[in-house]
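Action item from last week, closing it out:
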Amino acid sequence: MCGRYALAVTPEDVEQEFSMIRIEWFPPRYNIAPTQPILVVRAGRAGREAALVRWGLVPSWAKDIQALPLFFNARAETAAVKPAFRGAFRHRRCLIPASGFYEWLKEPAIGRSGKATIVRKPYYLTPKRPLVAFAGLWDEWGDANGNLLDSATILTTSANDDVAALHDRMPVVVEPQDYDRWLGLEGDGDVGSILRPAPAGTFTAVPVDPRVNSARSDDARLIEPIGPAEPAAKSAATQLKLF
């Protein structure tokens, strides 16, 4: 699962990573949440192009947006056949630049009443590289008045060893050599081999400020470690199994 992520880089970093020019300026973002606008890279007439879309895919065939679930994630294993995603999976794949993402560890605790409870402790998963690309799908929806809305979802797969102590799912990370194949700009359209967990060691998990729980919080301090890195997360997960 991926319900919050960060893009704390410059437009120039995105241009360099995805071999594009003239990316419009955007501020660093440290706590991107569903329904907010996100930057995607998709196939255009001249190759790769950047666009701002809503995070939370709205299928082109939808009649009532308000009645839809918030499709901010889609399972990579079934996206090709699910009605909400299969059209986009075939024709409108995209890359979602990210400099890290958040997951929450459920930990046993004693509440004020003295009863056992569970608290959710946020962790930030930072990649080795300054910037990675999540596999995404996008779609275009139009209302009765002709207003158009572009939106996207992040594909998830089974967690690797970096993430498994926190959650059983993680975003699909597309390697640079697969960017054009995922976007449909080269290859025969077979992208199944891309939809796999990232190699172990791709991310490091560190505990971070609980202020990230609020989508209103968005500053650089959110991704600063407030305790030991990954081993602490694994230890806490072991404690939870015994709770």
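Closing note: Residues 230-242 form the longest helix (13 residues).
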